[in-house]
Amino acid sequence: MKILITFQNTQVPVYFNTDTKQPIQRTLKLLTSALENKIRNGKQALQKCLNSLISIEIEGSEAILHSKSEFDSLALSLY
């Protein structure tokens, strides 16, 4: 399943596995909260990834952040 979120004035697609156990709205709330926190307080490598974010993939309790450069892609724990 695919949902679009707005992050830093950009529409970013978020891909979910259809057999997730957590409610999607709760996961989205945790995701947006974590992204906002990391853009303000994260280390430089994480901020570089967030500034060039193209998509997010949710796998269990982790968000895989895909950026324009495949070397900048990271995993972010949601829980």
How many runs of DSSP E, i.e. beta strands? 5
Which strand order do you get reading across the main beta sheet? 1-2-3-4-5
Number of helices: 2
Low-confidence stretches: none
SSE sequence, one letter per element: EEHHEEE
- Domains counted in the coordinates: how many? 1
Amino- and carboxy-terminal Cα gap: 21 Å
Mean pLDDT: 87
Rg, alpha carbons: 12 Å
Residue share in β-strands: 35-45%
Q: What characteristic shape results from the CA principal axes?
A: globular
Quickly give the structural class: alpha+beta
What is the share of helical residues?
A: 25-40%
Short description:
The chain is of the alpha+beta class and 79 residues long. Helices cover 33% and strands 38% of the residues.
What attributes does this structure have?
single chain, 5 strands, 2 helices, alpha+beta, 79 residues, 5-stranded mixed sheet
Please specify the SSE layout and strand pairing.
Layout: E1 2-7, E2 10-16, H1 24-41, H2 44-51, E3 53-59, E4 62-67, E5 74-77
Parallel strand pairs: 2-3
Antiparallel strand pairs: 1-2, 3-4, 4-5
Q: What would you note in describing this structure?
A:
- The radius of gyration is 12 Å and the shape is globular.
- The longest helix is centred in the middle third of the chain and has 18 residues.
- With about 80 residues, the protein is α+β, with helices and mostly antiparallel strands.
- Helices cover about 35% and strands about 40% of the residues.
- A five-stranded mixed β-sheet has the order 1-2-3-4-5.
- It has one domain.
- It contains two helices and five strands.
